[in-house]
Amino acid sequence: MQRGMLRAGITLGLGLTLLAGLDTSPTVHAMEALEAEEGMEFGYDAPDVTPDQWNTLAPLCGNGKEQSPVDLSQSKLTPRQERVRLRDQRNLKFSYHETPLEIFNNGHTVEVEYEPGSTLRLEKFGSVFDVRQFHFHSPSEHSFEHGALFDVEIHIVHNRQDDPSQLAVVALLVKEGQENVALKPVFDHLDAVMNKGDHFVGTEEVNIADLLPKDQRYFGYMGSLTTPPCTEKVKWHVLRIPIELSREQINQLIAVFDNSCCPIHGNNRPTQSINARALVLDKNTFSDSNDKEDDD
Ligand SMILES: [Zn+2]
Fold it and tell me: I want to staple 13 with a disulfide (CB 3.0 to 4.6 A). Which of 102, 167, 186, 226 is the partner?
C-alpha cells in the first residue's frame, strides 16, 4: 500500500502479448503498427506515452465509455445493482492446472505464459475461456473506497474457446502478508527477467489454482484492456478477497518494474469513469458468510 500512496494511481493492461499466438487478432496488429509507425511506445512515465496521452496512440483509450480499471466502491451501487446482486448466482467455474514455468518481461509487465488446458467456465454466459497468461501490476489498478489501492493486482487473462477475440479476466488483489508459496517458482526467477524482452523458461511448474482464495465472491463488470489499444467488451471478475505476497515478494516485483518500465508511477492505469455501466456483484459479495444464500 505504501507504494500505492507514492504512486499517483495509474494501470496496465492485459498485456498485449496475451494475444501474441493469435495471428488473427486485430488489436495486437493495430498496436504493433502504432508503435512501429510512430516510434513511440505506451508506458507510464515520460518519455514513454503516459496514460493521459494514450488516446494519441488509440482513440478508445480517451473516448471509450466502458474502460478499465474502475473504482469498486460499495457506495456507488444503485438499487438496481443491488437487485442484480441478489439474483446473481455463483458464476465462476475454475478448472486451472499446472503449467511449465515461462516468464516474459514485455516492457509493461511481467507475464507468466500458460500452456493450453486450463479453463474458466462462466455459467452466466454458458461459455468456456482458456487461460493464456497472467501478469502483475503494482500498485493495483482497481481501487476501492476513496481510491485506495492494493500493493499488487494479478490479471489472469482468458480467451473464449469458440471466439478467441472475446476476453475474460480474473483479477486478484494482493496485500502484504505471508510469502506466497504458489508463486515461489516465479519469484525465484524474477531476476532473470529484469529487462524488457527478457524471457525465462524454467524446469518448475506453476499452478494458478493454488493462487485462488477459497472465497471467490467477485465484482463483475464489462470493461476494457487497461493498456492501449484499450479494447472494450472485456469481461472483468475482480475477486473481493485479496491474496497475499510477502513484503519481499512485493519489493521484488517493484524492482523489476522500476528497472524495466515505470520507476515513478508503477504500471497501473488510473481508474476510469463507470459511466452507465452496472457494477455486478456476485451473490453475497458483501455478506460475511457464504452459508446464507438468497434465492430468487
Ligand atoms: Zn493487466
Answer: 226
- From first to last of its 296 residues, the chain has per-residue pLDDT tens of 334 333 333 333 443 333 333 333 434 444 444 444 444 589 999 889 999 999 999 999 999 999 999 998 765 655 555 555 544 546 789 999 999 999 999 999 999 999 999 999 998 788 999 999 999 999 999 998 778 999 999 999 999 999 999 999 999 999 999 999 999 999 999 999 999 999 999 999 999 999 999 888 888 889 999 999 999 999 999 998 899 999 999 999 999 999 999 999 999 999 999 888 877 766 555 544 433 333 33
Angle in degrees, CA 12, 216, 223, rounded to 5:
35
- How many independent structural domains does the chain possess? 1
276 part of a folded domain: yes
**What does DSSP assign to residue 111?**
E
Centre of ligand 1 from the C-alpha of residue 70, in Å:
13
Q: CA-to-CA distance for 280 and 219, rounded, in angstroms?
A: 6
Domain annotation covers residue 291: no
Cell of 116: 493450453
Q: Which residues surround ligand 1, an ion (CB under 5 A)?
A: 12-14, 155
- At residue 219, what is the residue type? F
Catalytic residues: 108
Quote the domain boundaries for residue 102.
2-281
Model confidence pTM above 0.70: yes
C-alpha 173 to ligand 1 mean position (Å):
12
Domain assignment present for 204: yes
Residue type, 254: I
Residue 288 CA to ligand 1 center (angstroms) comes to 28
Which CATH number covers residue 222?
Answer: 3.10.200.10
Residue 289 in any domain: the answer is no
Cα(135) to ligand 1 centroid in Å equals 6
